[in-house]
Amino acid sequence: MTDEKEPSMPEENDIGYTFETTKEIEIPTMLIDQVIGQDEAVETIRIAAKQRRNVLLIGDPGTGKSMLGQAMAELLPRKELEDIICYPNEEDPNTPKIRSVRAGQGKAIVNHHKQRANQQENTKYIVLFFVIAIVLFLAFTTGQLLTGILIIVLLIFLMQNMTRSKGGALVPKLLVDNSEKTTSPYVEGTGAHAGALLGDVRHDPFQSGGLGTPPHERVEAGMIHRAHKGVLFIDEISTFQVKMQQAILTALQDNKYSITGQSEMSSGAMVRTESAPCDFVLIAAGNIETVRDMHPALRSRIRGYGYELYMNDAMKDTLENRRRIVQVVAQEVHKDGKIPHFTYDAVQEIVNEARRRAGRKGYITMRIRELGGLIRTAGDVANRKDKDIVDVEDVLEGKHKARTLEHQIADKYIEKKRQYQIIRNTGQAIGRINGLAVMGDSGIISTIEAEAAPSASKEEGKIIAAGKLGDIAKESVQNVSALAKKYIGKDISNFDIHVQFLQAYEGVEGDSASISIATAVISALTQIPIRQDVAMTGSLSVRGEVLPIGGVNAKIEAAIDAGMKVIIVPHSNKDDVLLDARHKEKATIRTVRTIAEVFEYAFTGEHKDELVSKVRTFLEEDLG
Fold this sequence. Notes:
Distance between the termini: 13 Å
Number of domains: 3
Strand content: 15-25%
CATH class of the largest domain: Alpha Beta
Strand order of the largest sheet: 20-21-19-18-23-26-27
Number of helices: 20
């Protein structure tokens, strides 16, 4: 029943291009054509852009949500852009007037008002000059020089006071200037505070004596107004307060939104403009929790007047999609501008890494941002070596340097545990097994020990688990008791079985340690030793079937790095195993379907065959 062969690397090495370096690869000019692996999303974005629909993008980080938002701004029909101008309101200064004009006219209108205001100022100074001249002439001719000087000072003071209090009010303020834009605006409002997103009115500390700044000059446009006739992109929209989400909803419904001071302690809170236009297309993004925390009415508005999309996290490993990964490498090199181009073999290694990160056979990862990080790191390695191209060695070294924080922590964790012999990779022991777990995207060794002791209760024995276990992990421990009762052939109610995850301070969750727990418990009850150069991972059903788990490649690599010689994984995960050359030849991978096969590879000693035969017989009766 057991598959003795080691899972092999994919044989499909054709990446769809023939080239020496990625310099020969043509890069699309349109952003929408640079988005790969999201065919359904791209098609929907094209439709949404044509019809000016809102879009909600849900998916993992780095799968192309921001690029889709930018691409939509390029695809929007070329509507006539507008400038937004704020005028003073003579009847109610705290309600400035808002007007919109064709793009480019706003600056001309404001400049015209400035010129007229300057002419008025010049006229005042000319009149003042002649008045002063007349006063001085009369003062000299009448001998009243002191009186003349006092009159001149009073005239200058009055003129300056009039200039401060009324001169600025003559000139409107240009809030949004689209005079130099050739495409629809794209505004990213991720993480913006209320004032930046919705507009604000600056505080004025001088509000009396003619020293204050006119209200219309203190008005500042928000991102929703700068996105007028364009796209407003907001990532992690659920992090916005409910009040802000409600304001976005109002802006979407009315296509206009008044600007007011966002702080109640500011003098700007007394100012509220007329409604300013904000006819934008909203692209909201986030992960699956975003849907739960999002304002229901806002989501309903998007769904009713747009589309909801779930982004792909992987694409099928086809020749066409491999060509797209080649395109990604060329795009990243071009965008970075500081790293050399990649050779054919280097790109092939990037494609293999994209396969491995997908975590399952026949797919390529769509977390392009993380793949781009590896590309840039490999380029930096080549630059450090003063190379003009990036080769395979640079990519392999870049993979080590581009390890995630969790991977680096896991490496140090394993090194420390081996140093203190918490993780063993030689010899044999009763009730002790090397389980495999994941931390972030990295694998770690989780040592598990089991001990059977006389029951403290006369009624029944218990399985007692220690090691900061989560709910699912606790349930998997309980499920092991059903197997133990059936396969041991003796009443285990007389025993308390203690299971401990050694120094699992970070906690344990999930059921991927089920076969490890079962092996340790059976070993403790039967006193059959376990090989310590074996590590294993797999979920276990109550009937003894080994079920698939996640993160198989990360777990296998952690086991190999810890010096394990045999690694047991579920047969269902066989096609998911994609190891690089550095790990491939260092250990034997055993795929198993049942717990009997696990015992066959993990146990050693004279009673091993008897137990394996007994368990296999039970399984044949149950599973057929």
